[in-house]
Amino acid sequence: MTDILLTHGYFLYEDEKERQIMKPYPPLGLLYLSAYLRRAGFAVELYDSTLGSRNALSERLTSGSGRVLGLYTNLMTRGNVVDIAKQASQLGWTVVLGGPEAANYPDEYLGRGADVIVVGEGEETLTELLPALAARGPNRLHGVAGLWFRDEDGKVVQTPARPQIADIDSLPWPDRAQIDITEYMRIWKVHHGMSSVNLITARGCPYKCKWCSHAVFGYSHRRRNAIHCADELQAIHETYSPDQVWYADDVFTMNHAWLYEYNAELKRRGLRLPFETISRADRMMKEEVLAALAELGCYRIWIGSESGSQKILDAMQRGVTVEQVQWATHAAQRHGIEVGMFLMWGYEGETLDDIEATIDHVKKANPNVFFTTVAYPIKNTPFFQAVSDRVTLTQDWERATDRDWQIRGRHSRAYYRHADRWLRNEVEAFRKDAADPASAVELRAAATQARMALMATADEVEV
Ligand code: B12
Ligand code: SF4
Fold first, then answer.
1. Interval 214-235 mean pLDDT
2. What is the pLDDT of residues 25-58, one digit of tens each?
3. Which residue's alpha carbon is nearest to atom 74 within ligand 1?
4. DSSP secondary structure code for residue 169 in this structure
5. pLDDT, tens digit (0-9, with 9 covering 90-100), for 401-439
6. What are the two backbone dihedrals, phi and then psi, of residue 150, each rounded to the nearest 5 degrees?
7. What atom of ligand 2 comes closest to residue 208's alpha carbon?
8. Residue 215: DSSP 8-state
9. How confident is the model at residue 66 (pLDDT cuts 50, 70, 90)?
10. Which of 7, 360, 441, 446 has the fewest CB atoms inside 10 Å of its own CB, making it the most exposed?
11. Is 304 in the pocket of ligand 2 (CB under 6 A)?
């Protein structure tokens, strides 16, 4: 009999936006758990909802023959997780939640089908929790660290925090054999002409950007041994032969000595797989780092640029300067690496001047691609704490996400849509200036119009 059925609440085929993008990746957290629990002797089943369907999962839950359901949660999948947890609970499953979202809302989830919430890394906690559940049920778990649960009187209890896994090299690699990696690769190939597989070389980030969730790994940064990472990459190459990989680390270039060692090891093996990854500009401020990235096969790096206003970057506690982002962008491009940039509108204190500074910054940096988002306060982040007395949800908690918080006094979503149009037209005009001056004039007119529309909505604020 299965000791635990692991799954999550994300279904690619329900996600219209992602169906346009079609760059799905396997759920690494669940794959890590599966590998660890199997090694410890547990019978683990994994249902990968990304490529599955609600009906198939529902049938699996109905067919019984399981005892414990483990669900990964993040802020986007709340509604689905609640539906699955409620159904499973009614069918007699003990429902355990983990991942970055559940521990932010213990009362809410425990009141909606969940029996236990695991805080932080799941490997060691589940290894202790599964036998404890079998022996004592879900209401007498006081001795197991890293949990939220309800005791026999219905009181919500939090057990002491579990220390983080000190040696992450002791962990087995993600259990990729349990899911259909080739289907992910097929989807990639059909839509992008290249197949891709993900892996991570470190856990956690020590930086303190105020809007970023550190719910799982805290402020630790634990890096895997470069040789072990090279072994995993080689195994991925030999087993699946993807055209590229994605290092899903928080900050891939955090440790330069590690980067050079990894590069040397891959060179020694003659292994070079093109890849995309994410980093911070201040960790890319050396030509050698960019040269190593290029040698390793990095063809695109994503930088969290967030704002072109130093005042806003400082308010975010980002620890980066506007000039660093511009330098790192140009330097990466010089080394043949494309730059993708993430930008954020509407952070606390942002004024029209700051928006203008951001537009000016994107023109100066001129990344190959950029995405914008309106800042949203994730529960238990310093940003959330700062605005917590001004936030409201206009929908039921279980149908909303942390992206739906309205912040009293902040500009409307329409205002930021105009900011976006202004930015895109202005940057496009700047790019066309020399080659196609006529379209640059048109784009600039559209930018001016967007700016005026933004000014016209300046008094509309969230309530
Ligand atoms: C890669 C990544 C993505 C990829 C995901 C693709 C994929 N399938 O891998 C993409 C780019 C698509 C993505 C998108 C988004 N992401 Co993202 N992402 C990450 C990132 C950088 C790494 C994820 C990862 O692989 N981690 C490594 C594994 C080992 O860790 P893990 O998954 O947390 O698993 C461990 C524990 O959580 C726990 N655990 C996990 N599952 C379970 C289940 C059970 C039962 C138990 C007991 C324990 C448990 O044990 C695991 C092993 O220790 C994380 C940050 C991070 N470092 O984790 C952000 C992160 C998860 N993303 C985040 C966000 C906000 C998003 C978006 C909402 C962004 C957006 N605005 O659109 C979207 C949501 C997408 C969606 N529809 O679900 C936030 C989540 C915050 C929150 N409270 O939910 C994070 C934490 C970033 C941050 N620091 O703020 N993301
Ligand atoms: S945004 Fe990036 S650099 Fe900042 S704390 Fe989060 S993971 Fe670290």
1. 97
2. 999 999 999 999 999 999 999 999 999 999 999 9
3. 76
4. G
5. 999 999 999 999 999 999 999 999 999 999 999 899 999
6. -105, 130
7. 5
8. T
9. confident
10. 441
11. yes
Tokens 């509604």, residue located: 79
Q: Is 209 in the pocket of ligand 2 (CB under 6 A)?
A: yes
Average pLDDT over residues 284-298: 98
Cβ proximity of 76 and 378 under 8 Å: no
Which pLDDT band, with edges at 50, 70 and 90, does 1 fall under?
confident
Distance 330 CA to ligand 2 centre (A): 21
3-class secondary-structure state, position 243:
coil
Q: Which residue has the tokens 């049920």?
A: 137
Q: Ligand 2 pocket, 313 CB below 6 A? A: no
Residue 65: the pLDDT is 67
Distance CA 295, CA 293 (A): 5
Q: Which residue do the tokens 């942390």 mark?
A: 402
pLDDT tens-digit profile of 301-318?
999 999 999 999 999 999
pLDDT at 64: 78
HEC per residue, 106-171: HHHHHCCCCCEEECCCCHHHHHHHHHHHHHHCCCCCCCCCCEEEECCCCCEEECCCCCCCCCHHHC
Beta bridge partners of 6: 46, 70
Tokens of 41: 């002797």
What atom of ligand 1 comes closest to residue 26's alpha carbon? 8
Mutation test of ligand 2: which of 250, 280, 313, 347 has the most ligand atoms closer than 8 Å to its C-beta? Answer: 250
Q: Residue 50 Cα, ligand 1 centroid: separation in angstroms?
A: 14
Locus of tokens 């402020």: 219
Which atom in ligand 1 lies closest to the alpha carbon of residue 71? 45
User: For ligand 1, which residues put their CB under 6 angstroms from it?
Assistant: 10, 25-30, 32-33, 70-72, 74-77, 96-101, 104, 118, 121-123, 126, 198, 200, 212-213, 215-216, 248, 250, 373, 378
Which are the contacts of 161, defined by CB distance < 8 A and separation ≥ 6? 119, 120, 145, 146
Angle of helix 437-456 relative to helix 413-432, nearest 10 degrees? Answer: 160
The first and second tokens of residue 126, run together, are 């589940």
Whether this prediction's pTM lies above 0.90 is answered by: yes
Atom of ligand 2 nearest to the CA of 250: 7
pLDDT above 90 (res 141): yes
